[in-house]
Every structure is written in structure tokens, then in C-alpha cells.
Design a protein that fits this description.
With about 240 residues, the chain is an alpha/beta fold. The protein has six helices and ten strands, in the order βααββααββαβββαββ. The strands form two sheets. A seven-stranded mixed β-sheet has the order 4-3-2-5-6-10-9, with helices on both faces. A three-stranded antiparallel β-sheet has the order 1-7-8. A hairpin with a 2-residue loop joins strand 7 and strand 8.
């Protein structure tokens, strides 16, 4: 029987502590095992990257092990992740080694060190849902929009609440803030750790983008995720 997720508080008293304990520390702990399960690009992400014009400069915010960095060899990508262990894997992995126009580094998704209004595109795949409050999720979206030049776009994926056909079985009416178990091994022993997620209901990521000052260009549902392609709104500051 698969392990069941547990509800988490939607408004934690200390969201940074929750993220440090149940996101950042967990991904450092499970990085090698997690990386082994993340090797094949998702179709919509691949199409988005392959459609970027030659010479485009962009970001992969939350790049993990770097699996998307080599999808299009004609563009330049800066990859970042809060997990130092995943960045080590990205830096030494074949995705980076075989591609000249890639660099990676450790950075927070909200306090990203990138220059504003400079990038042609960005991707942020399965990242924003790890921020523990509505305000921090909005700020994560704003951070992505801030990096884009006028006319630039970003592709954002978040985990969906509506997953009734998945092994997890979540759907409307289920708690949106959950702890999701990950099973791995440490020193030969079975180990279960829990990662925090906010499950986005239909229309929620679009509403967040608009509140953050952005505009949704396109969107849809894939692999138990909601995805949107976004750009700055005309009054974005």
C-alpha cells in the first residue's frame, strides 16, 4: 500500500522553518535518489525550450539535477536551485558537461540574485508549490516576472489538487497543504521523509500570476500539474 500524505497547516507560524525542514533539508538528504528519478524532460517543457530563438538567454529557477539544461543547445541557460546537493549533481552531470552555454549555482527562488529585466525566458518547474504561504508563493511568481525583459515569457509548473486518477487520489475537497512522503535508504535502512507541498486548485496559479502583476499567455494540465506560460503585465513594477 502506498504511503499516504498528511495535511499541513496552510498558514504556518514560521514558514521559513517549515521550508527549511520539509523542503530544503529534505532535498539535500534525498538528492542522489531523487536525481535518479528525474531524467526525462516533460513534453511541454521540452517544446517550450526548443521553441526559444537561437541565442536566447534564460533561467531555470529550481533546476534540480539540471535535466532541462541541455534540451536546446542553441540557447544559454543559467540554472539555480536552493539545494546545494542537487546543484552539485547538476554541475557534474552530463546535461551541463556536454553543453557550453550553461552555468549553475545555489540561489533561493524568492531572493534570486539575477539582474532584473534581462532575460528572454525562464522556466520554473515544480518549485512554487514548495513555498509555505500564499504571500511567499506570490513573491516567487513576482521574482520570475522581475527577471524577464519586456516581451519575455516564463513557463511555470505547480502540482495540481485535481489528481483523482493518480496513485495519490487527491481531488477537490482534499486539503491543499500537505506533507508528501518520500521513501529512500540511508546506511542500508529504509527511510521515510516528508516534503511540504501546496496543491493548486484549478485557476489558482492563474489568479496568482495576475495578482503578482503578470499576464497568462497560455495554460493547461499535464502530468498531475497545472502549467502556465506567463509574461509581465503592462503595469508590472
Amino acid at each position: 500500500m502506498p504511503l499516504q500524505s498528511q495535511s499541513a497547516t496552510p498558514h504556518p507560524a514560521d514558514p521559513l522553518k517549515l521550508e527549511n525542514t520539509h523542503v530544503h533539508a529534505i532535498y539535500d538528504e534525498i538528492a542522489p535518489h531523487f536525481s535518479q528519478t528525474r531524467y526525462k524532460p516533460w513534453p511541454i517543457v521540452q517544446r517550450y525550450l526548443e521553441s526559444r530563438p537561437r541565442g536566447s538567454v534564460g533561467l531555470d529557477i529550481g533546476c534540480g539535477n539540471g535535466k532541462y539544461l541541455s534540451v536546446n543547445p542553441e540557447i544559454y541557460i543559467l540554472g539555480s536551485d536552493r539545494s546545494s546537493k542537487l546543484i552539485e549533481l547538476a554541475r557534474t552531470g552530463k546535461e551541463v558537461v556536454k553543453k557550453r552555454f550553461v552555468d549553475v549555482g545555489i540561489a533561493d527562488g524568492i531572493e534570486a540574485p539575477f539582474r532584473k529585466s534581462r532575460f528572454d525566458f525562464a522556466i520554473s518547474i515544480a518549485v512554487v508549490h514548495h513555498f509555505a504561504t500564499p504571500e511567499r508563493r506570490l513573491e516567487a511568481v513576482r521574482s520570475i516576472l522581475r527577471a524577464l525583459r519586456q516581451g519575455g515569457t516564463a513557463l511555470v509548473y505547480v502540482w495540481a489538487l485535481e489528481q483523482k486518477n493518480s496513485r495519490r487520489g487527491w481531488d477537490e475537497g482534499h486539503a491543499q497543504d500537505v506533507m508528501v512522503p518520500w521513501v529512500t535508504e540511508k546506511d542500508g535502512a529504509r527511510m521515510v521523509v516528508e516534503r511540504y507541498y501546496h496543491l493548486y486548485r484549478k485557476g489558482e496559479i492563474e489568479a496568482d500570476v495576475e495578482t503578482a502583476g503578470g499576464k497568462v499567455v497560455e495554460g493547461g494540465y499535464e502530468r498531475d500539474n497545472w502549467w502556465v506560460i506567463i509574461e509581465r503585465g503592462k503595469d508590472f513594477r
